[in-house]
Structure formats: C-alpha cells, structure tokens
Write a structure and sequence with these properties.
124 residues; mainly beta; Immunoglobulin-like; four-stranded antiparallel sheet; four-stranded mixed sheet
Length: 124
C-alpha cells in the first residue's frame, strides 16, 4: 500500500510539473535589412512577435544598441497563440553603412532576451 501511495504521489507531481504555464517568444525574423536607402527616407520598419507558449508573454523592455535605433514594444501582455508588432525607427540622416541590434527582454524562461540585427546603408 505504501508503494502504491508513493507511486501515485510521484505521478501526480509529474503531471503538475509538466503542466506549468510558460510564455514562449517567437520573432518573425532575426534580421531586418533596410537595403540601400536615401538620406532622410522613412526609417520605420515593423517586427512581429508571437507567443507560442500557454501563458501571457510580457515584453519588459526593448532596447536599441544606440540612440539611432529606437524600438517601441507593446505594453500589454501578448496572450497565448497571439501576436503583436514592434515598431523600429532608424535615423536615416546618418549616411553610410550600418549594423545595429535590438534586444527584446521577455518573461520566456527559455529565452529571456531575443536579438534582432538591423542592417543597411544610407546614401546621400
């Protein structure tokens, strides 16, 4: 009887552990290529962030690698199997090639931060 009770508790505990809710971040792309753009052109692009987990995904911060790259994250949690858009603005008044990064911090326990590379060239 003791073995059966111990085994039953073990099985119940295993189900509880595997049934935990977790958010899971997925990006539509890991690289945004602006290509060759003119100085002063529209520097805004978007990125889709999806939640493939079974708990709300919270984006706690979005940070550009410099002041010329400014991401704007949604403030509301992204519900399971839903998506949201991050707006990214690059300052196109700086001529020359560029390679920047945006880091997105979230509550995904497997991937607490995700990085997106921004590349391109601004021509006069």
């Amino acid at each position: 009887m003791y073995r059966f009770l111990s085994f039953s508790i073990f099985i119940l505990f295993s189900f509880c552990v595997t049934a935990q809710s977790e958010a899971s971040i997925q990006l539509s792309t890991e690289t945004i290529d602006y290509g060759v753009i003119k100085k002063g052109a529209d520097g805004e692009r978007t990125l889709t962030v999806s939640n493939r987990g079974n708990a709300p995904l919270v984006l706690s911060n979005c940070a550009g690698s410099c002041g010329c790259t400014v991401p704007s994250c949604p403030r509301e949690p992204i519900m399971p199997n839903r998506s949201a858009t991050i707006s990214i603005k690059y300052d196109t008044n700086r001529p020359g090639p560029f390679s920047k990064m945006i880091t997105i911090f979230s509550n995904d326990p497997q991937k607490t931060s995700a990085v997106v590379r921004i590349t391109g060239e601004v021509k006069e």
